[in-house]
Design a protein that fits this description.
By secondary structure, the chain is of the alpha/beta class. Helices cover about 40% and strands about 15% of the residues. This is Sulfate transport system substrate-binding protein.
């Protein structure tokens, strides 16, 4: 069962007095759908990925206020969260999403190919290839960094236990996998060595949760593992929730340019009569107001000026497409049936 941090305030922030209990209550709904407001004229469903719960809670409230001020109409945005791959599957299987805000391009590609509810050229429908923000992968370690983790190469040391989600169900898991592979490939452009490096790393993984938030719970609350490669925003959230006296963030010199895209599920929206509002919701993500909210939650906004003062560290980022080609190729090579991850799993990781 997917877990949620459900003791958050409505704005996504957590008072300091409640910090210790933020993950203590883990009974949860598999799909965290917020109830529509009474009398709402329009309700949208945003199917999103695991670590965006706090982000979209604030985004959705801000959009509703903006839409009301602009049009006089009430709108409620419901949000569903889980591992990005699993979330994409729910849309493929019929969940009535108006928009998807998923963790990796291949998940939206899968919806487009298997349902035709999203056009094949969806990446060209919004600015910056439908990326209102980007992210990267950093390391969360125990306070004082007792295992001395500084870079990706340290994750294959025999005494370092790595907590990372399953790349078959989690976009965070796929970005971690691809970041590790890209780091190794970048050393001398040797594919076989990069494959072997990832295989060695996964031998140090004791458990694979279905989503990024599940892995955060495993590391931060269950206290398993020595290092959690994770979305940048998720690492900062753990410091906020548990206190900087318990964990450190290690920023590797090189990491991956993570692309969590958004798209209109046009066939669903047209049938439901929500196209105008759903498109306005996606357009809103590029406004100065929304961009500032992304930066506040430690995502990397499309508008660079919105990131000023957010304290996001400089990292040398690589794009996995430059190493492995198109997202069709990346998905097939690594995560489809009999891809690299499956082969590593059969070999005992």
């Amino acid at each position: 069962m997917r877990t949620v941090w459900h003791s958050m305030t409505r704005t996504g922030s957590v008072p300091g007095s409640r910090r210790a209990g933020c993950l203590a209550l883990l009974g949860a709904l598999a799909l965290g759908l917020a109830a529509p407001a009474a009398g709402a004229q329009t309700a949208l469903l945003n199917v999103s990925y695991d670590p965006t719960r706090e982000l979209y809670r604030e985004i959705d409230e801000a959009f509703a206020k903006s839409w009301k001020a602009k049009t006089g109409e009430d709108v409620t945005v419901r949000a569903s969260h889980g591992g990005s791959g699993a979330q994409a599957r729910t849309v493929i299987d019929g969940v009535d999403a108006d928009v998807v805000t998923l963790g990796i391009p291949s998940d939206i590609d899968a919806i487009a190919k298997l349902t035709k509810k999203i056009p094949a050229d969806w990446r060209g429908k919004l600015p910056n290839e439908s990326l209102p923000y980007t992210s990267t992968v950093v390391f969360l370690v125990r306070k004082g960094n007792p295992k001395g983790v500084k870079d990706w190469g340290d994750l294959v040391k025999p005494d370092v236990k790595v907590i990372t989600p399953n790349p078959k169900t989690s976009a965070g898991g796929r970005w971690n996998f691809l970041a590790a592979w890209g780091y190794a490939y970048g050393q001398d452009k040797d594919t076989a060595k990069a494959d072997a490096f990832v295989g060695q790393l996964y031998k140090n993984v004791p458990v694979l949760d279905t989503g990024a938030r599940g892995s955060t719970v495993t590391f931060a609350q269950r206290r398993l593992g020595d290092v959690l490669p994770t979305w940048e925003n998720e690492a900062y959230l753990v410091l906020q929730e548990f206190g900087a006296d318990k964990f450190d963030i290690v920023v590797p010199p090189t990491s991956i340019y993570a692309e969590p895209p958004v798209a209109l599920v046009s066939a669903n929206a047209e049938r439901k009569g929500t196209t105008k509002v759903a498109q306005a919701y996606l357009d809103y993500l590029y406004t100065d107001e929304a961009q500032a909210i992304f930066a506040k939650h430690h995502y990397r906004p499309f508008k660079a000026e919105a990131a000023k003062g957010a304290g996001l560290p400089d990292v040398k980022l690589f794009k996995i497409e430059d190493y492995q080609g198109s997202w069709d190729d990346i998905q097939a090579k690594n995560f489809d049936s009999d891809g690299l991850f499956d082969r590593l799993s059969r070999a005992g990781r």
